[in-house]
Design brief:
This protein is mainly alpha-helical. It has helices at about 25-35, 40-50, 65-70, 75-85, 110-115, 120-130, 130-140, 155-160, 190-195, 200-205, 210-220, 225-235, 245-260, 285-295, 300-305, 315-325, 330-345, 350-360, 370-390, 405-445, and strands spanning about 10-15, 60, 90-95, 100-105. Pfam families: DnaB_2, WHD_DnaB.
Length: about 450
């Protein structure tokens, strides 16, 4: 990826650091972070850390870093992005009429022992350095003194009492290092519904720690919701708890089958072409509908289309089985549900749903925009084929038909065809309005 010109040599910078470094942070950077981010990003972190001792009132330029590291500025910019992505750096830009300046705020790395408590980082390191070296490092850095006896330490709730209800769910202590993924950003209601349908206690499976693990593996292996569900079901024990190691192995196996490869490596993210960028400022109702279908769950879609009522267990079961069997991404499944409801007078026909789902699965649709365009083209093709189909009629009588009658019949056929297209477009737009209406209501209640 071309990073030339992202920052200029004459642009200034300052370095900040908040917090405390672990005593053995250098070991952590060398043995645990460096395999993930590479020597240049590792060197940049150490260079900026040592620059803290030489902070002056005048802002230094990026010429300084180029001279220290003996690297071109585009390589330094690429190394900076890796530090940001792995959670070791925050960058703030100040724009003025004259030139830009930057503040580089270094973040504390995990200590070697705490590094292995982050499932995503640990799993990435495993794939980068191999099982033998990984187990050696893990055993070395996570050694603990053996403690004899039973742990009888009192918990916070056993000792203290608070009368502020909003504090009851807060953590007592929180690590200052921010996690790379946020489990709160993922909607687990769909998985909760799936577990309840199988008579599995969701609260035993979807613990806070397991939710974090599921979120991280979902990000690491780029898995869809139905693929994560498969992995969770595979890793359940007889006591209906999640075997974390089996879950990680199941996610890895799905990744291998999906991408036909074994190695997981951190790579730079390619910029998407302009025509593939999501619509940020939708101008039409159809664009608004696409955005809604991209971000909501199938369960929420059903509830919004039923004027905010609860989605039935039977409908959810049908959708889940079709989605899992055909491997459709959630946005594509949303378009499919919407399309089937429009074509079936708001009835969710399982046979019709499965028929179209198999077709869409072969078409390898990935986004709501692709699915909507595909649905429209298929409907247009069907209507044109129906219009061009030979119409075998009984032999007409020799009675003379006036020209004005033929002309009126022809106009009526054209009007009906136009009306079909207009009605179809109106149905899409009405659904967009309905979704926005109930999404706003839900947001107001939150």
């Amino acid at each position: 990826m071309n990073h030339i010109g992202k920052i200029l040599p004459i642009e200034g910078y300052r370095v900040l650091f908040k917090g405390n470094l672990p005593v053995d942070y250098a070991k952590s950077l060398t043995h645990l972070y460096q395999p993930l981010i590479g020597i240049q990003a590792y060197s940049l972190y150490q260079t900026l850390m040592n620059e803290l001792e030489f902070q002056h009132e005048s802002v230094q330029t990026h010429h300084t870093i180029m001279n220290y590291m003996n690297l071109p500025l585009d390589d330094i910019y690429r190394a900076r992005l890796k530090l940001e992505g792995i959670g070791l750096l925050k960058t703030y830009q100040n724009q003025t009429d004259e030139q830009n300046s930057y503040i580089y705020e270094l973040q504390s790395p995990f200590s070697p022992a705490n590094f292995f408590t982050d499932e995503m980082l640990a799993q990435l390191l495993y794939h980068h350095i191999g099982e033998t070296k990984f187990e050696l490092l893990k055993e070395h850095y996570t050694q603990h003194e053996k403690r004899e006896g039973t742990n009888i330490t009192a918990s916070f709730s056993e000792v203290f009492q608070t009368f502020q209800p909003y504090l009851e769910g807060m953590e007592v202590a929180k690590d200052q290092h921010e996690s790379i993924t946020d489990s709160a950003a993922i909607d687990f209601t769909w998985m909760e519904q799936m577990l309840k349908q199988r008579m599995i206690p969701a609260n035993r499976v979807l613990t806070p720690a397991n939710k974090k693990l599921i979120s991280q593996m979902m990000t690491l292996y780029d898995l869809a919701t139905y693929e994560v569900e498969k992995s969770v079901l595979w890793a359940l024990t007889d006591e209906n708890t999640l075997n974390r190691n089996e879950f990680k192995e199941a996610c890895h196996d799905l990744f291998k089958n999906k991408h036909n490869q074994i190695n997981i490596k951190l790579t730079e993210k390619e910029e998407h072409p302009i025509n593939e960028k999501p619509v940020s400022n939708p101008t039409t109702k159809e664009e608004q509908l696409i955005i809604e279908l991209e971000k909501i769950s199938p369960k929420q879609l059903l509830e919004d289309l039923s004027s905010g009522g609860q989605a039935s267990a039977q409908d959810m079961k049908v959708i889940r089985e079709v989605m899992t069997t055909q491997g459709l991404p959630s946005p594509v499944m949303n378009v499919l549900i919407h399309y089937v409801l429009l074509q079936s007078n708001m009835k969710l026909s399982r046979a019709y749903l499965e028929k179209i789902a198999s077709h869409w699965s072969r078409a390898n649709l990935k986004t709501a925009k692709e699915a909507m365009a595909f649905a429209k083209s298929e409907k247009d093709r069907y209507q044109k084929g129906k219009a061009n189909k030979p119409n075998y009629k009984k032999p007409q009588s020799n009675e003379v038909v006036p020209d004005w009658f033929k002309e009126r019949k022809k106009k009526k056929q054209q009007t009906n065809s136009t009306q079909d297209n207009t009605d179809s477009q109106q149905e899409w737009e009405e659904t967009a309005t309905l979704l926005r209406k109930y999404s706003k209501k839900k947001n107001n209640h939150l």
